[in-house]
Amino acid sequence: MSVYEIIRFAFRGLFTNRLRTFLTVLGITIGVASVIILLAVGNGSSKAIQSSLDRLGTNSLQVRSGGNGFGFRARASANSQKPLTILDTVALTDKTQAPDIKQVAPIVSTNGTCVVGSNTSTPSTFYGTWPAYYQASNTSIQSGSYFTNDDVTQSRRVALIGQTTATALFGTESPIGQTMRCSGIQFTVIGLTAKKGASGFQDGDSLVLIPITTMENTITGNQALSSILVEATKSTTTTAAQNELTTILDARHGISGSKSADFSVFNQASLLTTASTSSQTFTTLLGMVAAISLLVGGIGITNIMLVTVIERTREIGIRKAIGAPKGAILSQFLIEATILSLLGGILGVVVGLIGSHFTIVGTKPVIVPASVFLAFGVSILIGVFFGGYPAQRAASLRPIEALRHE
Amino acid sequence: MAVDSAEAEQAAEAVDSVVDQQPVIEVRDAVKRYGVGDASIFALDGVSLTIQPGEYVAIMGPSGSGKSTLMNILGALDDMTSGEYFLDGIEISSMDESHLSIVRGRKIGFIFQSFNLIPRTTAIANVELPMAYQGVKPKERRERALVALDVVGLGDRINHEPTELSGGQQQRVAVARALATRPALLLADEPTGALDSKSTADLLDLFDQINAAGRTVVVITHELDVAHRAKRIIRMRDGKIVGDELNKERVA
Ligand SMILES: Nc1ncnc2c1ncn2[C@@H]1O[C@H](COP(=O)(O)OP(=O)(O)O)[C@@H](O)[C@H]1O
Ligand SMILES: [Mg+2]
After folding, report:
1. What is the ipTM of this complex?
2. Residues A87 and A220 in one domain
3. What residues of A are in contact with residue B77 (Cβ under 8 Å)?
4. Most-buried pick from A97, A267, A387, B194 (CB within 10 A)?
């Protein structure tokens, strides 16, 4: 009996048992597709975290008052703390002492509510700063203009606002040139910042930026800074920049020997490491879910294969009784199983690849090539093994035993 | 394939090259025991039997007397606990599975009470199947299957599936399947058990024809009128042969 003939028998077997064929293929398809899609979602979200961190800028450092942060230098002592000042900021711009620092922006932060008519908005970020802030924080203008050094020296009442704030206060109207009242002070909006998106839990577009002098003179009324934003010359020099600024501030604040620092430095690069570690954990978890779904799919296939071989044991008995060699029967069942799992595997890959083009729970999936091969390979192994093994068992029976099977 | 084709040819030749006047069936002291210890029963309890080529034998006996057990052993579908079985002079009792499949395919046509057609498969495909396993070329196979279906009177039903055929028609497909391989021996275990009287009569006429053409036929039956068409009647009880005589109505 020729191989061609046996392949024809296998196809006939699949065709005469259409429902079983359909269910098995469906099971494999779902298993393979879900592995590919789940891993793509995990991978996509970790890519998204990566790129949003990249957008934040990996070459920026933040200096905050007080040593009790989770940052680089967490050695606070309660007494003799000196606040960060504008003079500290200016000291950091010294190119000889700090060659790796590109620019520095002081920040005075406050909480306030802005009002336009009956519209109100409480920006999650309400900063007084100066123009160096734009580049150091990757903030750009979509329409209108930036406030300038002149605006800062003149302490003008002008503001840049983010898109969330603009929508809340002005709806669909252009905010440029309009006035708003924040913390009781009237400001003219001169610029609308480009969309930043959410970073972490914060909406980057719920934003109001005003000149630092205006903030100090009209709202906060003191000279202490909330933080200093420092931009290193390159992402590779952030550590050097960090060391330089620490040396300068240590000297200015009289920190030496056993006296602990009264400021802390936050490094975006180390934040990045933390974030990508947690996104790896997320991907691993999704991978485990995917593996479980492949396993469950595999059990489903096994089940269908076992049930049908039991159902077909009588048929195997008939075939043996009329002179079918064991090898011919086994080959037929193995080829059937191979066709089923190949078909299911290929469909699963197709569905997985198509499914990965859609945005799933806010994440753009990015396919992990290895997952395609893994899912495809595993599904075929499962199909062939569990299609072949019970057939091997049935084909080894004496015909009369197989025929007695009810 | 498990069976190497050269080996298969050799075995087939060995089976074919036997001198004529040898018995088709020779069983010596066959024992079939089910279960172990006190609970065991002897389905066959020392059966010896010789059948010559061209005989038409009916095996009768009450239910549970071991008829089917004997028939399954004769058809190489089951093994025995002890004893010897020669088919056309070839010892079957010591053969391995790969050679047994050749014997089943070439030497024996087996007809079951419950037809045992492959479900959801047309009559012609069912008849062709044993020849396919023997390696008969598709064209020849189809011709022989058509002839066999014609002989059993189903030339107009070749593309019907088992569920589209009556019991009598299904049994005739099974006979066609058994005949198409041109076996030396036709074995039938209560072939009319599930048939009405008209179908029974048709089938018995068919068996007469087959036997008249020189084939050895062995039929198990409950029914006296079926047994009386045979030339020799063997009676069984409790796994033993208790009677073996020529049918005087049919043999001069
Ligand atoms: N697979 C089996 N397991 C145990 N006992 C069996 C089996 N097959 C048949 N028997 C027993 O063997 C005896 C002979 O059975 P069988 O040959 O089918 O009888 P008959 O065909 O004459 O009615 C019976 O007692 C039956 O119960
Ligand atoms: Mg019986």
Report:
1. 0.88
2. yes
3. 321, 398-400, 403
4. A387
